[in-house]
Each structure stands twice: as structure tokens, then as C-alpha cells.
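PROTOCOL LOG
Step 1. Enter all chains and additional molecules of the complex.
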Amino acid sequence: MDMQIALLLGQDGLTNGAIYALLALALVLVFAVTRVIFIPQGEFVAFGALTLVSLQAGKLPGTLWLLLALGTLIALIDGALALRNRQFRRGLWIVSVYCVLPLLLAGTLFAIPAATLPLPLQVGLALMLVVPLGPMIYRLAYQPIAEASVLVLLIVSVAVHVTLMGIGLLFFGAEGSRTLPFSDVSFSLGDALLQGQAVLVVVTSVLLIMALYFFFERTIYGKALRATAMNRTGARLMGISGTLAGMLSFTLAATIGAFSGILISPITTIYYDSGFLIGLKGFVGAIIGGLASYPVAAAGAILVGLLESYSSFWASAFKEVIVFTLIIPVLLWRSLKTHHVEEE
Amino acid sequence: MSELAGADERIVVLEVSSLSVSYGKVDALHGIALKVHRGEIVTVIGPNGAGKTTLLCALIGLLPVRGDIVYLGEQQDGGRSVEKLVRQGMTLVPEKRELFSEMSVKDNLLLGAFDRYRAGHRDQLETIDQVFEIFPRLRERRAQMAGTLSGGERQMLAMGRALMAKPRLLLLDEPSLGLAPLVIKEIFRTITQLKKLGVAILLVEQNARAALQVADYGYVLETGRLSLEGPSRDLLTDPRVIESYLGLGGRH
Amino acid sequence: MKHAAHTTTVLLLFITALALAPLLLPEFYITLLNYIGLYAIVALGLVLLTGVGGLTSFGQAAFVGLGAYTSAYLTTVHGVSPWLTLPAGLLATALIALSIGIVTLRLSGHFLPLGTIAWGISLYYLFGNLEALGGHTGISGIPSLQVLDLEIKSGRAFFYLIWVVLLVFVLATRNLLDSREGRAIRALRGGSLMAEAMGVNTPRAKIVIFTIAALYASVSGWLYAHLQRFVNPTPFSLTQGIEYLFMGVVGGVAHVWGAIIGAGLITILKQWLQDWLPKLFGQSGNFEVIVFGLLMIFVLHRARDGVWPIITRWWPQRPTQARVVVEAAPLARRPMPKPGSLLLEIKDATKRFGGLVANERVSFSVMAGEVMALIGPNGAGKSTMFNGISGVDPLTSGTVIFRGQRVESLPARDIARLGMSRTFQHVRLLAGMSVIENVAIGAHLRGNKSFIAAACRTDRKEEARLLREAAAQIERCGLAEQMYEAAGSLPLGKQRIVEIARALAADPCLLLLDEPAAGLRYMEKQALADLLRRLRDEGIGILLVEHDMDFVMGLADRVLVMEFGRKLAAGLPEEIQRNPAVVEAYLGGVE
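Step 2. Run joint prediction.
Step 3. Record the structure below.
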């Protein structure tokens, strides 16, 4: 391996690592706040990318139907509840948020040719289609059993993951696709050629991480989420309900997932089931951070990206084997660090 | 805190009757009846394990109850929840303090006003100043992580955080727990100050003397039932209080 | 007993129907039943692991693959007999399961399932990329099984093999669960703290059930390889691993028969959905996972115990089969220390949680044949002291000398072995298990029969002695009438008494009782006090934390008062009651 290849692989690894880091942060966040191990994170990556592909191809993305269906379901459940408690204003609010807004979005999509819109608007539309699925799924699948054990929530996560994956196949078919590149620019740095898209991915990831940092450190809602993660009872006594924190963290995770998918779709072919493996690599990073530390999780995720990139050079067939076997020494290291674990 | 108009000292904030709480098949509390008026400190004292904490958890909506609770003139029904009660101005300072230990004192206080923020109030900075007036120590420590505070400061922060919600009824669970006598004295002096702000306080304490000295009215809770009640002055000298604590009942 | 008879009838009917199935059903259904059997073997392992032990694995399919590939490789490449590849596959599986288990099982609950997802993927890609294993095309031409001259080749012949293996495994699993080691496994769900305090080596128990589950899966893989006579990586993917867990959860993961029900339901549903969904959607693909996922979410929301408990509602069973054999020989007892001799000595015990000091340089001792009471206001550090002494949460510094031996750095289970037994402030019983089974956990260290002995039922003599001991302790504590009731159905006060009976079943010389009288009525308290006095007269030392002062003062020989984690006073009950410092500590005061 010469220097040029090494740099190229490093660039690849860093690009993927940045995405894994974003996902790892979202996973740590969701786990800390809701105790949900968010396996379906990967589906948001795939949905984000493939929704943008559909928009650019001038097709109606299947995620729209999912959005309408979940919205209607929630409106029916929560609306009925509000009616029974005679909270008519609340009922109206629920119907407008969960039914009218998605319908307006659908109307927009029918009315204007999305394929001809400028890229930022397309990205915005794709996010508007995919991100609300996050809190909706929280409301339907997790909130009714929010007090269940981590293991039950994990099994639910796996169930949500397979459901969404099946739905992904239904909507987007088995073929993979790429979106149009955001930028064709490339720079040369010494011997190496820096691809504009790769730089964009890394820079955007860093910006997103900074935005997250700002959100958690400076806004009262961000602080409320951290408070819930630290002390659930304490937070509840301040009026920060578990449902609110759950919806909020799922919204963030869905945003991060969908946006990550959109970022990498010009450089990676995305299939309906690609998200799962991408998400899991974020997971390996999150586990390195013990599902608790944000910086360690991010660093771990970048390590995963680099390891993957270099192992694809030496033993490309065993790339996945190497990445996922990494978890064993990591777990060993964590188990040696943990002296005593007792779930009270 | 707008209906000062009536200016009637005896407005009932909380009225509880025949309240029972069970864990599974066991009654933890049985037939509890008590009343808290505006601007009044009412204390429930009793030995360890009598059900004092259970009572407060039940009132704030953390535990399901049977019986009647009327809060601010409103009968509480099945739709009662912690979040709703917090919105209506009931706040609990829990026995374990439940602080956000990896956050600064100031952030802890800020989150005390989370629900007011959500409801559209933006007066947090002034409220924080008021809380700092009451607990000057917290001002000194405002940048420090809550987890690094001393026991007394933790209790002050827990109370300060609760005050950030501008409560109408403050439920205090064993504020003296684990604190040194001098600190207890300081905490209880603050509790009497709060009374002057017009907050109704329900104070649950094992430290009977300290509680009765600051309270207007007291109840004695023994194994899930209220065994005695009366103006605190009378309870302070009642020998039956001592008996219920030290098990002298059967021997003299 | 009528219910037991019902159960036996149903079971016999089921076996008869199975035996007749190949003679009556067409080939298609036999194939389906063969797959149900193969899947149920794997799901059965999950019952043991997840339903009983509370550990979750999504990676069982990888173990199936290990069994299948070991046999496929050895028979086709090296011409080894399939009967030899079975133990080879089991050995390979056991080695891998042990090493994975050791790495992940020490961590908190969710790391194991996450680990299983990762290495499930990893092994799948390994199977698909190793040239020697035929890559993604797999290995074909695997020989069929032969017994003497008889070749087990047809689906119908294989049917008997699969279902006999499955039923044997079901029987062995049931036997195992109904034994000393089985109770230890079932105790894992109640948190390892209690199990450790009763002397159970919980990490070992976890690794054992993880390995057993992996071995079941491996056997299923071996059968699969010789039934199909062809293997490729697909059936061993993570997706299949997830499906195995779904089978367990849908069927009822806490019940051995739930594995068969779950495997049956999911397999039949899958068959049906694979026919219908592509027609419905007008395209081909694995759409059945959508339905499976939704079904799982529904089951976990609405019927978390799965289908089996719903079925058994038609013929309700008693919670246990454990029955006491009165004529069993009593267990050997440990020699008791002389009354009045030093039993436990605590010197300068200190416990810190971060910056908080819960115990600070506390020293005291307990003699054999005395009741020592530890009292003090809330938060004085009494329960912390208990946890320090019993090794559940070791002290930061200081020494604990129990029967002349320093124990402050020993794990709880080793301290229990020396004759210290305890109860918990928050009752730690297994609510679904009968009182007698709960109490028998206390006698864990008084038996030594292994998992294998339990599965083969060669442990019955010891088991009878253990149950007899448990029954004797229950009677002694006055709970004979509730012996076969589920522990969770008793009132809290009675549950505390069950905890005492469980502690006594360990044949202790020192009893640590954490608030034993809480929740008891007056008469029950009297009975408890009488029991404790009798125990004291037998020479047992009792260390007691209790809030009911009437109870403490009437019972204790000596009293130690703690406040702020420190020793405030010590002495006879009368002295303590008159001690002004104690009165102050309890009633408090501002001036």
C-alpha cells in the first residue's frame, strides 16, 4: 500500500466514520433518554436516502403512504382518547398535526414536480417525509410500554426494524440507487485527491454535532432531555414527561438518521436494507462508548469507519467479519472495566 | 398566585379524605384524612416506615390511590397525572432530592421552571434571582455541578428547584434527612420564610421536634394510619408522640 | 391432582398424534412438521435462556449454522461419519459459546443481545466468504444418516428422529428446571443479588444456560444439514436468528411447550404469508417480516407472556410439581458455634458512595446465641452496613471477621457458604414460584448435584432431601398452609417470613434480618418474635435492622444505634431507651 492509497482509504474511512459517529450519537441519546436500543435507526438512513432518490426521479416516495397511515392511526387513537376525556381542543390539535399536516405535504407533492426543485428544497421535502415517522413510531410502538424492561424494549426495536425493512422493500424495491452528487468539486491535497462530496459529509457531520452540542447545552428542551437521561423521576417532578422526552429524542434520532442517509447517498449505493448494517456500525461505536459517553461513542464510530476502510483493502471479503468481530474485544474490555453490575 | 382578591387566610388548598394506597395486597396507607390551607405549614410526622413518603408520592400522582383528593377546589379523577398536577402548581421535593447531578446548579434551577417555560412564561431569570435571595449559598455555587454539592446544599437546591415552578402547594419529604443539626436549623428557618410567600406547605418529617416547631398543624402517622392530630404546639408536648417513636408504649 | 391428570392426558394425546402423523399426513405437512421440530429445538434453548434466565440472544441461528457447517464440512471434505460430526459440532459450539459468554455475560443485560446481533452477522459473513465452506453457494452432497443398515433418508423417517430429539430435550429441560440448579437459574430473573446471597454462582449459571441453548441450536443445525443434505449461509443469518426469538416470544418464552407452539405458529404463518403477500402486493419479496414485526409488537404490548399461558387457561395447572417426600433423610447440619462465643466482628467499617459517606468507622460484634439490633433514623446507613457484611456491596475499608475468618473481600456466595444468611429490606422472592421452591433456593449450597444429573433425574434423592428441609423450615415459620402457593400471592408481611424461612434453609449460624417485622400484624409480630427467640436459643446469632421499637426492645439482647453512618450509642435496650442522645436522634430538634 502506498501513501496515496492509504490517504484515499483514510478519506473513505473518515467519511463513513463521520456518518457512523452521527448515528452513534443518536443511539446514545435515545438509549439514555428512553432506554430504547434504537435498532431501526438504520431504516431511517435508508428511508432518507431512498425518499430523496424517489423525489429526484419524479416518483412519489412510498414513505408518504407510511406517513399518512401512521398519522391517521395516531389521530384515531389519541383523538378518541381526547374525545372520551372531553378535551375537544386537544382532539382538534391532534387531528390537525397528525392528519392535516401530512395531507398538506401530500398535496404539495402532487401539485409540484419535486424533480425540478433545487436540491436543498428536495432535501427539505425528504426530511419532512421521513423525520415525523420517528416520533410517530415512538408513540405507537414504544410509548404504551415505556416502563417495560430494556430487554422488552429491545425486542420491540428489533420487531420495528424488521417491519420497516419489509416496508422498505415494498416501497423502494430490491434495487439499489444513488442520488445526484451535491458537489462535483475535488481538491488535491499533496498526492491525494479530496472528493468534494466526502468533504461535505465530514463538514456537515461536524456542523451537526456542534448543533447538537448547542441544543443540549444551551436550550431548555435540550437540557430537559439530558435531565431525563440523568434522573427520570426528578425530571417528571419538574413536569418533563417521559412521553415528551421520548418524542423529542426520537425526532432527533430520525433527523440524524435520515440526514445521514441523504449525505451518503451520492457516494454509496443504498438498498432498502443497507441502513441496517450502517446503523449497526454506528452501534459498535456506541457500544465502545458504553451507550453512555457521547465523545467516546463518536471516536469509536470513527475508528469503526477507518477499520472498515482499511480492512476492505486487505481482506475485502472479510470486511464485515472484521468490523463486527471488533465488538468482542470491545465488550471484553468493557466487562473488565465494569466491576459490578446489579440492576436494582 | 393571582387570586389574592379573597384574602381569606383559610382557603383550602388540599383536602384529602379516606385516602388509601396499596402495594399489591398490602395497604400502605389507610383512611387518611387531612387538610392544608393557604399560607399554612402542615406536617405529618411519624417513625420510619410509617408510610410518609408513600403519602407524598400518592398525592403528587406517582402512585394510584383510592379515596378523595380535592386540590384547589377540584376533585381529582382518573385523569390525574404528575405532569398535570405540576402544571397546577403542586410540587414535590423528594426524599432522595432527585437532582440532575451532572448539571450545574443554575441548570437544575432552570429546569425547575421547565413547565412554566412550556406554558409560555419567560420570567425564569427573575425567579432564579428570587431563589438566590432565599438560598444565597446557591448563588455562590451556581456554576458547580449538582453532584458535587454537600448534603445541605443539595437539599437547598432541591427546594430551590421546586420553588422555580412558583408552586401553590409544596410537598417536602424529609428535608432534614441525613443532615447535620446546624444545617437542619438553616433549612427549617427557610421553610418558615417560604410560608410568608403564601405557599402552602405539607411537610413530612421524621424529625418530629423540628417539624412541629415550624408547623401550624400536625398529624402523626403510624403504620399507615393517622393516629394523632392537632395544633403543633400541643403535639410538641404530647407524650404519645414520644411513645410512637421509641416504643415506650408497652413498658410504662 | 386432577389437573396433573389432565395434563398427562393432553400430553399423551399429543404424542400419539405425533406418532401417527407420518402415517396419515401428506408429504407437504410432514416437511412442515419437520421444520417446526427443528425450529422448536432452537426455540427451546431460548426458553431456557430468555424465558427462564432473562437473557436474550438474536444470534441462535449462528449456532445452528455452526452445527450444520461443522458436519457438512467434516463429512464432505474429510469423509467423517455423521455420528462423529455431531460431537465435533457440539464441541465447536460449546467452545465458541463459552468464550462469547464469558465476554458478554458479565455486562448488564442488554450487551448480550447486542453482542449476539454483531457476531450473528459476523459468523454469517464468515460462512459466506470462506472458500473451504463453499462461499455463498454452500456445501452440497452431505451424506444421509444411517443407523446400522437403515438409512434415514425420507422426510417421514426424519420426522421421528427430529421429534424424538425435541421431546427428549423438552423432557430434559423440564427436569433441569425442576431441580436445585434449575431453581438457581430461575433465580437469575429476580436479579443476581439475591441469588448470590443464597450462594448461587450467577455468572456460572448464566454461562451454563447460554451454552445449553447454543448446544440445542447446534443439534438442530446438525439435523438440518443431514435432512437437507445441503447447506448455504442463508438459513443462519441474523434474520433467522430474530425469527427464532419471535417464535419463543410468541409461543410463550417462559414455558417449554411455548417453544413448540411458537415454532408451529410462526412456521405455518410464514408459509401462508409467503403464498399470499406477493400476490397481494404484486411483487415478490420477504414481506412476511412486516406481519411478523407487527405481530411481535402486538404480542409485546398485549400478551407479553405469549400464547401458551392463554392456551393453558383451559386446563389450569398448579405453579409447581415439587412435592415433599416426608421419608427423605434430613440434610447434614453444620456444627454450631458455642453460645456466647464471638461470631461476627466488625472493625472500622467504612463505606463511601462517591463523596457520600454511608458508614464511617463503625465497629461492633455479634455473639452466637444473641439478638443484636441495629437501629437508627432513616438514612443512618443500616442497610448499607448489611450489604457490606454480607458481601453484596463490599465495604470501602474496614474488616469483617466471621467465625474467625476475614470475609470483607469475599464474594457474597462464599460468605454464604461459611454460614451467614440474610433477608432483604425489599423482599426478593420469585413471585411466580411456589413458597417451597423459593425456600429451597436457600438450601442451594447444601446440595451438589450437577445440571446433567438434574436433566437425567439422577438427583432425585438429594432433591427430596432439599425439599424436605425447605418444608421443615416453612412449617417452623408457620407457613405450612401456604407451602404450595405462588410466593407473590402472599401478603407482604408473609413474604418477609418466607424470606426468613429461605435464609434458615441454608442452615446458618448467623442470620441478618432487614426489617423482618415490617407489614406484619400484631399477632404475627409476636409469632415472629417467638420464632427468633427459639432460633437464638438454638445458638444462632441474629443481627436485626428494625423500625418497630416495641418489637426491637422486647427482643434484642443488645442494641446499636447508628446516625449519619456513625455509631451513636450501644448497650442494653433499657439503656438505649433512656439515652438522651438517642431520644434526640429519633425525635430530632432544632435547638
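Step 4. Note key features.
The interface with chain B takes residues 354-356, 377-379, 488, 491-493, 515, 518-519, 547-554, 564, 577, 582-583, 586-590 of chain C (CB under 8 Å).
The two ends of chain C are 68 Å apart (CA to CA).
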